Amino acid sequence: MQQQLSEIQNIVEDVLTLAKQKGATQAEASMSKVQGIAVSSRLKEVETVEFTNDGGLGITVYHGKKKGSASTADLSPAALKLTVEKAIEIAKYTSEDDCSGLADKSLMAYDYPDLALYHPIELDTELAIKQVIAAETSALNVDPRISNSDGASYNANIGTKVYGNSHGFNAGYNSSRYSLSCVVIGEQDGDMQRDYAYSVNRNATLLDSPEQIGRDAAQFTLDRLGAQKVKTCKVPVLFHREVASGLFGHFINAISGGSLYRQSSFLLDHLGKQVLPNWFDISERPHILSGLASSPFDHEGVITQDREIVTDGILNQYLLTSYSARKLKMQTTGHAGGIHNWFIKNTGESDQAMLQKLGTGLLVTELMGQGVNIVTGDYSRGAAGFWVENGEIQYPVHEITIAGNLKDMLKNIVAIGAVPETRGSVQTGSVLIESMQVAGD
Hints:
Elements: H1 2-21, E1 26-42, E2 45-63, E3 66-72, H2 77-93, H3 125-140, E4 146-165, E5 169-188, E6 191-201, H4 210-224, E7 233-239, H5 241-254, H6 257-261, E8 282-284, E9 307-311, E10 314-315, H7 322-327, E11 342-344, H8 351-358, E12 361-368, E13 378-389, E14 392-405, H9 406-411, E15 413-416, E16 426-427, E17 431-439
Parallel strand pairs: 7-12, 11-16
Antiparallel strand pairs: 1-2, 1-4, 2-3, 4-5, 5-6, 7-17, 8-9, 8-11, 9-10, 12-13, 13-14, 14-17, 15-17
Domain Metalloprotease TldD/E C-terminal: 232-440
Protein name: Metalloprotease PmbA
InterPro entries: Metalloprtase-TldD/E_C (IPR045569), Metalloprtase-TldD/E_cen_dom (IPR045570), Metalloprtase-TldD/E_N (IPR002510), PmbA (IPR047657), TldD/PmbA_N (IPR035068), TldD/PmbA_sf (IPR036059)
Protein backbone atom coordinates (compact mmCIF):
# COMPACT_ATOMS: atom_id res chain seq x y z
CA MET A 1 0.00 0.00 0.00
CA GLN A 2 2.96 2.32 0.46
CA GLN A 3 3.65 2.00 -3.26
CA GLN A 4 0.00 2.79 -4.00
CA LEU A 5 0.22 5.87 -1.77
CA SER A 6 3.24 7.12 -3.72
CA GLU A 7 1.55 6.43 -7.05
CA ILE A 8 -1.55 8.40 -6.02
CA GLN A 9 0.56 11.29 -4.79
CA ASN A 10 2.28 11.35 -8.18
CA ILE A 11 -1.10 11.48 -9.97
CA VAL A 12 -2.27 14.32 -7.72
CA GLU A 13 0.96 16.20 -8.40
CA ASP A 14 0.54 15.71 -12.14
CA VAL A 15 -3.00 17.11 -12.24
CA LEU A 16 -2.03 20.08 -10.07
CA THR A 17 0.86 20.84 -12.41
CA LEU A 18 -1.44 20.55 -15.42
CA ALA A 19 -3.98 22.88 -13.80
CA LYS A 20 -1.28 25.49 -13.29
CA GLN A 21 -0.14 25.12 -16.91
CA LYS A 22 -3.73 25.64 -18.04
CA GLY A 23 -3.90 28.96 -16.22
CA ALA A 24 -5.35 28.18 -12.79
CA THR A 25 -4.16 30.60 -10.11
CA GLN A 26 -4.82 27.96 -7.43
CA ALA A 27 -5.82 24.31 -7.49
CA GLU A 28 -6.53 21.41 -5.16
CA ALA A 29 -7.08 17.72 -5.83
CA SER A 30 -8.06 14.71 -3.78
CA MET A 31 -7.90 11.08 -4.74
CA SER A 32 -8.78 7.81 -3.05
CA LYS A 33 -8.55 4.11 -3.79
CA VAL A 34 -10.53 1.59 -1.77
CA GLN A 35 -10.65 -2.19 -1.82
CA GLY A 36 -13.38 -3.92 0.09
CA ILE A 37 -15.61 -6.90 0.63
CA ALA A 38 -19.23 -6.95 1.81
CA VAL A 39 -21.03 -10.17 2.70
CA SER A 40 -24.59 -10.54 3.96
CA SER A 41 -26.64 -13.51 5.03
CA ARG A 42 -30.26 -14.14 5.99
CA LEU A 43 -31.46 -17.13 7.96
CA LYS A 44 -27.95 -18.56 7.79
CA GLU A 45 -27.90 -18.53 3.98
CA VAL A 46 -25.53 -16.26 2.06
CA GLU A 47 -27.45 -13.50 0.29
CA THR A 48 -24.77 -11.29 -1.24
CA VAL A 49 -21.02 -11.23 -1.73
CA GLU A 50 -19.66 -7.98 -3.13
CA PHE A 51 -16.11 -6.93 -3.92
CA THR A 52 -15.15 -3.31 -4.49
CA ASN A 53 -12.07 -1.84 -6.05
CA ASP A 54 -12.95 1.79 -6.48
CA GLY A 55 -10.93 4.86 -7.17
CA GLY A 56 -11.67 8.44 -8.03
CA LEU A 57 -10.13 11.87 -8.34
CA GLY A 58 -11.69 15.26 -7.84
CA ILE A 59 -10.06 18.56 -8.72
CA THR A 60 -11.04 22.15 -8.00
CA VAL A 61 -9.39 25.04 -9.78
CA TYR A 62 -9.57 28.75 -9.10
CA HIS A 63 -9.21 31.60 -11.58
CA GLY A 64 -8.89 34.45 -9.15
CA LYS A 65 -12.15 34.21 -7.23
CA LYS A 66 -13.87 31.98 -9.77
CA LYS A 67 -14.10 28.27 -9.02
CA GLY A 68 -14.60 25.15 -11.11
CA SER A 69 -14.70 21.50 -10.05
CA ALA A 70 -14.71 18.18 -11.88
CA SER A 71 -14.19 14.52 -10.98
CA THR A 72 -13.50 11.21 -12.66
CA ALA A 73 -13.37 7.52 -11.86
CA ASP A 74 -11.28 6.90 -14.98
CA LEU A 75 -7.66 7.40 -13.94
CA SER A 76 -6.07 7.11 -17.37
CA PRO A 77 -3.82 10.02 -18.39
CA ALA A 78 -6.29 11.12 -21.07
CA ALA A 79 -9.23 11.11 -18.63
CA LEU A 80 -7.25 13.02 -16.00
CA LYS A 81 -6.27 15.65 -18.57
CA LEU A 82 -9.90 16.00 -19.67
CA THR A 83 -11.05 16.35 -16.05
CA VAL A 84 -8.63 19.22 -15.45
CA GLU A 85 -9.74 20.92 -18.66
CA LYS A 86 -13.40 20.59 -17.69
CA ALA A 87 -12.72 22.15 -14.26
CA ILE A 88 -10.89 25.03 -15.94
CA GLU A 89 -13.77 25.51 -18.38
CA ILE A 90 -16.39 25.49 -15.62
CA ALA A 91 -14.44 28.11 -13.67
CA LYS A 92 -14.74 30.52 -16.60
CA TYR A 93 -18.52 30.56 -16.26
CA THR A 94 -18.94 30.80 -12.48
CA SER A 95 -19.47 34.01 -10.56
CA GLU A 96 -16.70 35.52 -8.50
CA ASP A 97 -16.82 34.78 -4.79
CA ASP A 98 -14.49 36.69 -2.49
CA CYS A 99 -14.54 33.82 0.03
CA SER A 100 -13.42 31.08 -2.36
CA GLY A 101 -9.89 29.72 -2.52
CA LEU A 102 -7.54 27.38 -0.69
CA ALA A 103 -7.04 27.40 3.04
CA ASP A 104 -4.09 29.53 4.12
CA LYS A 105 -0.67 28.02 3.40
CA SER A 106 0.45 28.55 7.00
CA LEU A 107 -2.22 26.08 8.19
CA MET A 108 -1.16 23.16 5.98
CA ALA A 109 -0.16 19.88 7.67
CA TYR A 110 3.29 19.68 6.11
CA ASP A 111 4.45 17.66 9.13
CA TYR A 112 1.78 15.31 10.48
CA PRO A 113 1.69 12.21 12.69
CA ASP A 114 1.07 8.57 11.79
CA LEU A 115 -2.18 7.77 13.59
CA ALA A 116 -2.09 3.97 13.12
CA LEU A 117 -5.27 4.01 11.03
CA TYR A 118 -4.17 1.12 8.82
CA HIS A 119 -4.56 -2.48 9.97
CA PRO A 120 -4.80 -4.57 6.79
CA ILE A 121 -6.05 -8.13 6.56
CA GLU A 122 -6.67 -10.40 3.60
CA LEU A 123 -10.13 -9.82 2.13
CA ASP A 124 -11.19 -13.41 2.70
CA THR A 125 -14.66 -14.37 1.46
CA GLU A 126 -14.80 -17.60 3.42
CA LEU A 127 -13.89 -15.84 6.66
CA ALA A 128 -16.56 -13.20 6.04
CA ILE A 129 -19.20 -15.86 5.37
CA LYS A 130 -18.27 -17.69 8.57
CA GLN A 131 -18.63 -14.44 10.52
CA VAL A 132 -22.15 -13.64 9.33
CA ILE A 133 -23.40 -17.22 9.65
CA ALA A 134 -21.96 -17.48 13.16
CA ALA A 135 -23.65 -14.23 14.21
CA GLU A 136 -27.07 -15.33 12.95
CA THR A 137 -26.69 -18.83 14.38
CA SER A 138 -25.82 -17.44 17.77
CA ALA A 139 -28.82 -15.08 17.72
CA LEU A 140 -31.34 -17.70 16.59
CA ASN A 141 -30.21 -20.13 19.30
CA VAL A 142 -30.81 -17.74 22.20
CA ASP A 143 -34.56 -18.18 22.63
CA PRO A 144 -37.49 -19.73 20.70
CA ARG A 145 -39.12 -16.29 20.58
CA ILE A 146 -36.39 -15.16 18.21
CA SER A 147 -38.43 -16.30 15.26
CA ASN A 148 -36.75 -14.71 12.29
CA SER A 149 -33.69 -12.86 11.10
CA ASP A 150 -33.29 -9.71 9.09
CA GLY A 151 -29.75 -10.75 8.34
CA ALA A 152 -26.12 -10.29 9.28
CA SER A 153 -23.55 -8.20 7.43
CA TYR A 154 -19.76 -8.10 7.36
CA ASN A 155 -17.82 -5.25 5.73
CA ALA A 156 -14.09 -4.76 5.31
CA ASN A 157 -12.49 -1.78 3.57
CA ILE A 158 -8.85 -0.86 3.15
CA GLY A 159 -7.74 2.12 1.16
CA THR A 160 -5.60 5.15 0.51
CA LYS A 161 -6.52 8.82 0.57
CA VAL A 162 -4.42 11.71 -0.77
CA TYR A 163 -4.99 15.46 -0.82
CA GLY A 164 -2.78 18.01 -2.53
CA ASN A 165 -2.91 21.68 -3.50
CA SER A 166 -0.88 24.41 -5.14
CA HIS A 167 0.63 25.47 -1.79
CA GLY A 168 3.06 22.60 -2.36
CA PHE A 169 1.09 20.34 -0.04
CA ASN A 170 0.69 16.71 -1.15
CA ALA A 171 0.00 14.18 1.60
CA GLY A 172 -1.97 11.04 2.27
CA TYR A 173 -2.37 7.97 4.41
CA ASN A 174 -3.70 4.43 4.35
CA SER A 175 -6.64 3.40 6.50
CA SER A 176 -8.85 0.43 7.25
CA ARG A 177 -12.33 -0.12 8.68
CA TYR A 178 -14.20 -3.31 9.55
CA SER A 179 -17.73 -3.94 10.81
CA LEU A 180 -20.05 -6.82 11.68
CA SER A 181 -23.77 -6.51 12.45
CA CYS A 182 -26.81 -8.71 13.05
CA VAL A 183 -30.55 -7.88 13.02
CA VAL A 184 -33.18 -10.30 14.34
CA ILE A 185 -36.95 -10.39 14.85
CA GLY A 186 -38.74 -11.68 17.93
CA GLU A 187 -42.39 -12.61 18.42
CA GLN A 188 -44.51 -13.06 21.53
CA ASP A 189 -48.31 -13.15 21.75
CA GLY A 190 -48.64 -11.57 18.33
CA ASP A 191 -46.21 -8.75 19.12
CA MET A 192 -43.21 -8.59 16.79
CA GLN A 193 -40.11 -6.55 17.56
CA ARG A 194 -36.76 -6.07 15.91
CA ASP A 195 -33.35 -4.99 17.18
CA TYR A 196 -29.71 -5.27 16.28
CA ALA A 197 -26.13 -5.30 17.51
CA TYR A 198 -22.93 -4.35 15.75
CA SER A 199 -19.21 -3.82 16.15
CA VAL A 200 -16.87 -1.54 14.20
CA ASN A 201 -13.11 -1.01 14.42
CA ARG A 202 -10.03 0.00 12.44
CA ASN A 203 -8.53 -3.34 13.50
CA ALA A 204 -10.46 -6.46 12.50
CA THR A 205 -9.04 -8.47 15.40
CA LEU A 206 -10.69 -6.05 17.85
CA LEU A 207 -14.24 -6.58 16.59
CA ASP A 208 -16.62 -8.25 19.01
CA SER A 209 -17.01 -11.94 18.27
CA PRO A 210 -19.88 -12.89 15.94
CA GLU A 211 -21.29 -15.05 18.74
CA GLN A 212 -21.42 -12.06 21.09
CA ILE A 213 -23.00 -9.83 18.46
CA GLY A 214 -25.66 -12.47 17.79
CA ARG A 215 -26.44 -12.91 21.49
CA ASP A 216 -26.67 -9.16 22.00
CA ALA A 217 -29.00 -8.71 19.01
CA ALA A 218 -31.26 -11.46 20.33
CA GLN A 219 -31.31 -10.10 23.89
CA PHE A 220 -32.01 -6.55 22.77
CA THR A 221 -34.94 -7.87 20.71
CA LEU A 222 -36.31 -9.99 23.56
CA ASP A 223 -36.18 -6.99 25.86
CA ARG A 224 -38.52 -5.12 23.50
CA LEU A 225 -41.23 -7.79 23.35
CA GLY A 226 -44.50 -6.80 24.99
CA ALA A 227 -44.00 -3.10 24.25
CA GLN A 228 -46.78 -0.76 25.31
CA LYS A 229 -47.76 2.84 24.76
CA VAL A 230 -47.66 5.34 27.61
CA LYS A 231 -50.01 8.15 28.51
CA THR A 232 -49.03 11.60 27.26
CA CYS A 233 -46.92 13.21 29.97
CA LYS A 234 -44.00 15.49 30.74
CA VAL A 235 -41.18 13.55 32.40
CA PRO A 236 -37.39 13.23 32.61
CA VAL A 237 -35.89 11.48 29.58
CA LEU A 238 -32.72 9.39 29.54
CA PHE A 239 -31.15 8.97 26.09
CA HIS A 240 -29.24 5.69 26.03
CA ARG A 241 -25.63 6.21 24.96
CA GLU A 242 -26.27 4.52 21.59
CA VAL A 243 -28.70 7.29 20.60
CA ALA A 244 -27.28 10.10 22.75
CA SER A 245 -24.58 10.87 20.20
CA GLY A 246 -27.39 11.98 17.87
CA LEU A 247 -28.17 14.86 20.21
CA PHE A 248 -24.64 16.12 19.76
CA GLY A 249 -24.98 15.59 16.02
CA HIS A 250 -27.64 18.32 16.05
CA PHE A 251 -25.33 20.48 18.16
CA ILE A 252 -22.52 19.95 15.63
CA ASN A 253 -24.84 21.02 12.82
CA ALA A 254 -25.85 24.14 14.75
CA ILE A 255 -22.25 25.32 15.34
CA SER A 256 -20.97 24.46 11.86
CA GLY A 257 -19.96 27.32 9.60
CA GLY A 258 -22.46 26.56 6.84
CA SER A 259 -25.42 26.88 9.21
CA LEU A 260 -23.95 30.00 10.80
CA TYR A 261 -23.14 32.10 7.74
CA ARG A 262 -26.54 31.21 6.30
CA GLN A 263 -28.06 32.33 9.62
CA SER A 264 -29.91 29.02 9.89
CA SER A 265 -28.87 27.92 13.38
CA PHE A 266 -30.52 28.16 16.78
CA LEU A 267 -27.02 28.85 18.16
CA LEU A 268 -26.31 31.84 15.96
CA ASP A 269 -24.12 34.40 17.80
CA HIS A 270 -23.57 32.06 20.76
CA LEU A 271 -19.76 31.90 20.63
CA GLY A 272 -18.47 32.61 24.13
CA LYS A 273 -21.92 32.11 25.64
CA GLN A 274 -23.39 29.47 27.96
CA VAL A 275 -25.05 26.75 25.87
CA LEU A 276 -24.73 23.76 28.23
CA PRO A 277 -24.67 23.28 32.04
CA ASN A 278 -21.72 24.90 33.84
CA TRP A 279 -20.09 21.50 34.53
CA PHE A 280 -20.19 20.45 30.87
CA ASP A 281 -17.05 19.98 28.72
CA ILE A 282 -16.56 18.76 25.15
CA SER A 283 -13.01 17.99 24.00
CA GLU A 284 -11.84 17.14 20.49
CA ARG A 285 -8.83 14.83 20.08
CA PRO A 286 -8.06 14.23 16.37
CA HIS A 287 -4.86 12.26 16.92
CA ILE A 288 -6.15 9.27 18.92
CA LEU A 289 -4.27 6.25 17.60
CA SER A 290 -6.57 4.04 15.50
CA GLY A 291 -9.54 6.29 16.33
CA LEU A 292 -12.59 5.92 14.11
CA ALA A 293 -12.70 9.69 13.54
CA SER A 294 -8.98 10.39 13.77
CA SER A 295 -7.34 12.36 10.97
CA PRO A 296 -3.97 14.12 10.69
CA PHE A 297 -5.46 16.82 8.46
CA ASP A 298 -8.87 17.84 7.19
CA HIS A 299 -10.21 17.77 3.62
CA GLU A 300 -8.41 21.04 2.85
CA GLY A 301 -5.00 19.93 4.15
CA VAL A 302 -5.36 21.95 7.36
CA ILE A 303 -3.61 20.25 10.26
CA THR A 304 -6.00 18.99 12.93
CA GLN A 305 -5.35 19.78 16.57
CA ASP A 306 -6.74 19.24 20.05
CA ARG A 307 -9.55 21.67 20.82
CA GLU A 308 -11.80 22.40 23.76
CA ILE A 309 -15.13 22.91 22.02
CA VAL A 310 -17.07 23.59 25.22
CA THR A 311 -15.64 24.42 28.66
CA ASP A 312 -17.85 24.83 31.73
CA GLY A 313 -20.84 24.95 29.41
CA ILE A 314 -19.45 27.85 27.35
CA LEU A 315 -19.10 27.48 23.58
CA ASN A 316 -15.46 28.15 22.72
CA GLN A 317 -15.37 27.08 19.10
CA TYR A 318 -17.35 27.14 15.91
CA LEU A 319 -16.58 24.39 13.37
CA LEU A 320 -15.27 26.12 10.26
CA THR A 321 -13.95 25.36 6.81
CA SER A 322 -11.85 27.97 5.04
CA TYR A 323 -14.90 29.15 3.05
CA SER A 324 -17.25 29.48 6.04
CA ALA A 325 -14.44 31.10 8.06
CA ARG A 326 -14.03 33.81 5.42
CA LYS A 327 -17.78 34.31 5.33
CA LEU A 328 -17.72 34.86 9.09
CA LYS A 329 -14.42 36.81 9.04
CA MET A 330 -12.76 34.15 11.17
CA GLN A 331 -10.10 31.44 10.66
CA THR A 332 -10.73 27.85 9.61
CA THR A 333 -10.69 25.34 12.47
CA GLY A 334 -9.73 22.28 10.40
CA HIS A 335 -13.24 20.89 10.20
CA ALA A 336 -13.62 20.49 6.44
CA GLY A 337 -15.06 16.99 6.32
CA GLY A 338 -16.41 16.85 9.86
CA ILE A 339 -15.34 16.49 13.48
CA HIS A 340 -12.51 14.38 14.88
CA ASN A 341 -13.18 12.30 18.03
CA TRP A 342 -15.33 14.24 20.45
CA PHE A 343 -15.22 13.28 24.11
CA ILE A 344 -18.17 14.33 26.27
CA LYS A 345 -17.31 14.79 29.96
CA ASN A 346 -19.32 12.41 32.16
CA THR A 347 -20.66 12.92 35.67
CA GLY A 348 -19.52 9.52 36.92
CA GLU A 349 -22.77 7.55 37.22
CA SER A 350 -23.06 3.88 36.24
CA ASP A 351 -25.96 2.75 34.06
CA GLN A 352 -27.95 1.72 37.14
CA ALA A 353 -27.16 5.02 38.88
CA MET A 354 -28.42 6.89 35.80
CA LEU A 355 -31.73 5.02 36.05
CA GLN A 356 -31.94 5.92 39.73
CA LYS A 357 -31.30 9.55 38.84
CA LEU A 358 -34.00 9.36 36.17
CA GLY A 359 -36.43 8.09 38.80
CA THR A 360 -39.73 7.90 36.95
CA GLY A 361 -39.61 8.66 33.27
CA LEU A 362 -38.53 7.40 29.87
CA LEU A 363 -35.38 5.58 28.78
CA VAL A 364 -35.01 6.10 25.01
CA THR A 365 -33.15 3.41 23.06
CA GLU A 366 -34.38 4.15 19.53
CA LEU A 367 -35.23 7.33 17.62
CA MET A 368 -37.16 7.62 14.35
CA GLY A 369 -37.95 10.38 11.91
CA GLN A 370 -36.23 13.66 11.11
CA GLY A 371 -38.33 16.14 13.09
CA VAL A 372 -35.50 18.50 14.03
CA ASN A 373 -35.40 22.15 12.97
CA ILE A 374 -31.84 23.47 13.32
CA VAL A 375 -33.03 27.04 12.68
CA THR A 376 -35.41 27.16 15.66
CA GLY A 377 -34.12 24.20 17.68
CA ASP A 378 -37.56 22.58 17.72
CA TYR A 379 -37.22 18.85 18.30
CA SER A 380 -39.88 16.17 17.77
CA ARG A 381 -39.06 12.56 16.99
CA GLY A 382 -40.62 9.15 17.19
CA ALA A 383 -39.11 7.02 19.93
CA ALA A 384 -39.06 3.62 21.60
CA GLY A 385 -37.46 2.41 24.79
CA PHE A 386 -38.50 1.59 28.35
CA TRP A 387 -40.73 3.07 31.02
CA VAL A 388 -38.90 3.49 34.31
CA GLU A 389 -40.38 3.91 37.80
CA ASN A 390 -38.37 4.57 40.94
CA GLY A 391 -35.17 3.83 39.05
CA GLU A 392 -36.30 0.40 37.81
CA ILE A 393 -37.26 -0.58 34.26
CA GLN A 394 -40.93 -1.60 34.20
CA TYR A 395 -41.75 -2.47 30.58
CA PRO A 396 -40.78 -1.63 26.97
CA VAL A 397 -42.62 1.20 25.20
CA HIS A 398 -43.12 2.08 21.54
CA GLU A 399 -45.18 4.30 19.22
CA ILE A 400 -44.47 7.47 21.17
CA THR A 401 -43.11 10.90 20.29
CA ILE A 402 -40.74 13.01 22.37
CA ALA A 403 -40.57 16.76 21.91
CA GLY A 404 -38.75 19.82 23.18
CA ASN A 405 -36.39 22.55 22.03
CA LEU A 406 -32.71 21.75 21.56
CA LYS A 407 -31.56 24.96 23.23
CA ASP A 408 -33.51 24.05 26.37
CA MET A 409 -32.63 20.37 26.13
CA LEU A 410 -28.90 21.11 26.04
CA LYS A 411 -29.07 23.49 29.00
CA ASN A 412 -31.20 21.06 30.99
CA ILE A 413 -28.87 18.07 30.79
CA VAL A 414 -28.73 16.70 34.34
CA ALA A 415 -26.07 14.00 34.02
CA ILE A 416 -23.87 12.07 31.57
CA GLY A 417 -23.27 8.37 32.25
CA ALA A 418 -19.78 7.07 32.87
CA VAL A 419 -20.00 4.21 30.33
CA PRO A 420 -19.36 5.72 26.87
CA GLU A 421 -20.45 4.75 23.39
CA THR A 422 -17.16 4.32 21.52
CA ARG A 423 -18.29 3.25 18.03
CA GLY A 424 -18.48 6.66 16.42
CA SER A 425 -17.07 10.16 16.21
CA VAL A 426 -18.80 11.31 19.44
CA GLN A 427 -17.94 9.38 22.59
CA THR A 428 -20.62 10.00 25.19
CA GLY A 429 -22.39 8.18 27.97
CA SER A 430 -26.16 8.14 28.35
CA VAL A 431 -27.66 11.64 28.59
CA LEU A 432 -30.32 12.55 31.17
CA ILE A 433 -32.51 15.56 30.34
CA GLU A 434 -34.55 17.13 33.11
CA SER A 435 -37.90 17.14 31.33
CA MET A 436 -39.45 16.58 27.88
CA GLN A 437 -42.92 16.21 26.46
CA VAL A 438 -43.83 12.58 25.73
CA ALA A 439 -46.85 12.02 23.47
CA GLY A 440 -48.54 8.62 23.64
CA ASP A 441 -52.12 7.60 24.26
